[in-house]
Design a protein that fits this description.
mainly alpha, globular, XRE family transcriptional regulator
């Protein structure tokens, strides 16, 4: 049997912590994207690690998820 190691992006870890804390799957609403100032496509690119967050994006997301902004860099 082959085991596969996966590494999570900091934002994936933040989303996972959010889900664990709230005991529900994270499903952004239409209000979430304007609140954090990031569009839907850009947000999921950040989650998947395809793009790096800007300073303002990191601040906004850290505020929403209740994390220090340094965690998202």
């Amino acid at each position: 049997m082959c085991t596969k190691l996966t590494s999570q992006t900091p934002l994936q870890t933040a989303v996972q912590s959010f889900e664990d804390k709230n005991l529900t799957k994270f499903q952004p609403t239409a209000k979430f994207y304007p609140y954090v100032g990031i569009n839907r496509i850009r947000f999921w690119q950040l989650v998947e690690g395809k793009k790096r967050p800007t300073y303002d994006e990191a601040l906004s997301l850290s505020k929403y998820f209740g994390l220090p902004s340094e965690v998202l860099f």
